[in-house]
């Protein structure tokens, strides 16, 4: 099997380092709980598996060549990102109201450290399912991931062997590199949990990430 591994690895690493929707989902999940961050990472890479299999089967080619199908996928992905952002903002505001009500009863300090909240204190299964679902849907509804397997990845495939086998090889390598990268990112992002245990900082973080999700979703929808 003859593929341009050096060039491929350079492109893949650059693609992972540049922040995007997957990056935001994994980091935000990791700051809630490291297990949720790892689940989001695995969900994102599972979404890539779907794109890889679809590209090999030719389904992605049909989608990207059909303006209606491509636009539908793009708008679904944008709508999901906006949905995640709105939920984050509403969660932040609801938590702020609860803290104000609690201070009125207990008279506690305004910015005392507090548990992360429902997402952090939920069951292990609930955290894993929530993180995995967010990572998976964010990636599988991203038409740019499909375009990567159809337009970028084939540039590193040579005609001396089976094109299908080479695409599968490069796709699997891409997914494995992503798992290592995301897990390392989760380990770093999880360290922010102590800082974010302070309600005021956590509130700002939730609002900031929520609006960022919305902005990315609107940008995806508006993109040509």
Automatic annotation (TrEMBL):
Pfam families: LysE. InterPro entries: LeuE-type (IPR001123). The chain crosses the membrane at residues 6-27, 39-62, 68-90, 136-156, 168-192, 204-223. The keyword Cell membrane applies. It is found in: Cell membrane. Keywords: Cell membrane, Membrane, Transmembrane, Transmembrane helix. Its main location: membrane. It is a multi-pass membrane protein. The keyword Cytoplasm does not apply. PANTHER family: ARGININE EXPORTER PROTEIN ARGO (PTHR30086), ARGININE EXPORTER PROTEIN ARGO-RELATED (PTHR30086:SF20). This is Lysine transporter LysE. The lineage of its organism: Bacteria, Bacillati, Actinomycetota, Actinomycetes, Kitasatosporales.
